[in-house]
Amino acid sequence: MREIHVDDITDSVAFLCQTASFDLDDDMIQAFQSSMKTEKSEIGKDVIEQLLDNAEIAKQERIPMCQDTGVAVFFIELGYDCKITGGNLYDAINQGVSKGYGDGYLRQSIVRDPLDRKNTGDNTPAITYVEMVEGDHLTIRFTAKGGGAENMSRLQMLKPSDGLEGIEAFVMESVRLAGPNACPPMIVGVGIGGSFEKSAYIAKKSLLRPVGVRHKDERIAELEEKWIEQCNDLGIGPQGMGGTTTALDVKIEVHPCHIAALPVAVNIQCHANRHKEVTL
Amino acid sequence: MGQKIVTLPLTDEKVQDLKAGDRVLLNGDVYAARDAAHKRLMDRIEANEELPINLEGEVIYYVGPTPAKPGQVIGSAGPTTSGRMDRYTPKLLSLGLKGMIGKGYRNEEVKAAIQKYNAIYFGAIGGSGALLSKKIQAETVVAYEDLGPEAVRRLTIKDFPVTVINDCYGNDLYQQGSDAYKGRQT
Fold it and tell me: What residues does the Fe-S hydro-lyase tartrate dehydratase alpha-type catalytic domain cover (chain A) (predicted)?
């Protein structure tokens, strides 16, 4: 049994929170650059150029690319042969968020209760999901999920008879309604199947896959490519001001489901697509 | 593509000179306020109490910045989603508010009020908070300090880049822009 001390988890989490906010990943930078070549609107091109400048300023000056530094969401893979010592995993993560957001001058955007809406002051608690896997490692995947795009996410319990056509219509309607609110160009995460909550979970988790990397199932990969084109035909464009770059990517994940069910969840991600991970 | 330069505060003439799709550099002072501050302002209006700020000719920027690092004027400071303020906006426009900076759709009531009160809605680039922080030269908290990132601030902006989304003539760039590019990818 391999042991990992909670202090190592806390330090790693603090680091991930900051670097995610300051350093936009290369897959996003490349997606911006290639969209500059295809975007048909002048305003759209200008927006993307400013987003590239913004990413460079954030990286050089170690300041957040976006003021909404998000709710801290963690997808944890914990090996069966890995033991956490010195405390518990959830507390270690929350301490890391508190430290990372505080020391990094990131915004505190969490209220302790959705009704009384008092700010917790340290961006905790995080949203943490743990999956047990083979091995003795601990992989921490972090995403800073901003409110603007998250608010435009949707879920619907379709009927099996609605089929692929119904799913496609729901996804495109969701992207259209999200429009400028979701800070396009966006990444669209789609979860099909599972249960009510599972569809939302896999939709969010699909966003961890780097931009430009297709699903390993060819059938799903083709659907992703088709929907990217359809999104970009909506005309929404960068910041919703009109253009042909509405979605930089569409990610789809599927899961077995009940014979009576066809849940579909659409989790929208803005262009400030902040993901970082580490394996301990 | 040209850019217009506008000095704040706004007047009827300045507003009438701007059209949806115009790219504008704003110079002068604006108020920063978002959800919680709007709610408090509205509570005071409903109780017939005086507001802590005078809205006449003013522009509200929907923003909740990150904390400033030592040596910074302000932290990252891009626009938040404007639609969450829609329920308060027509009232504020009736009290003299002349412009708003944010991102995202406004509802029909707000669009009608923008026309009725000869006002304007500017879009700034959402998610470009690092770049926009460079266009803010001074920051003072003027009300509701306890709200932290949601406090009302006075910001002095210089060459702050925005695009006109909804003008006083009823034009809507979000509608016009997406109509113009619909179906043009494939």
Answer: 11-278
Q: Judge: A50–B81 Cβ closer than 8 Å, yes or no.
A: no
- Closest CA–CA distance from residue A234 to any residue of chain B (Å): 5
A117 touches B at CB < 8 Å: yes
Tell me the pLDDT of chain A averaged across its residues: 97
- 10 Å CB burial of residue A49 (0-12, 13-18, 19+) is middle
Identify the domain boundary among A130, A145, A160. Answer: A145
Cβ contact, residue pair A50, B134, below 8 Å? no
Note the CATH architecture for domain B4-168: Alpha-Beta Barrel (3.20)
Residue A48, min C-alpha distance to chain B (Å): 10
Give the phi and the psi of residue B139 in degrees, each rounded to 5. Answer: -145, 130
Q: State yes or no: is B79 an active-site residue.
A: no
Point out the catalytic residue in the list B34, B38, B40, B153.
Answer: B38
Q: For residue A36, is it within any domain? A: no
Contact (CB<8Å) B69/A105:
yes
**Residue A54, domain member (yes or no):** no
Instruction: Tell which of A104, A119, A145 closes a domain.
Output: A145
> What tens digit of pLDDT does each residue of B124-138 get?
999 999 999 999 999
Q: The whole model's pTM is what? A: 0.95
Domain that residue A197 falls in: 148-273
How many angstroms separate the CA atoms of A274 and A27, rounded? 11
pLDDT recorded at residue B130: 98
The answer to whether residue A26 is domain-embedded is no
B83 CA: distance to closest CA in chain A (Å): 8
Q: Are B9 and B57 spatial neighbours (Cβ–Cβ below 8 Å)?
A: yes
Q: What average pLDDT does this structure show over A17-27?
A: 98
Q: How far is CA A254 from the centre of its chain?
A: 17
Q: What is the pLDDT of residue B1?
A: 53
Q: Is the pLDDT of residue A130 over 60?
A: yes
Domain presence at residue A103: yes
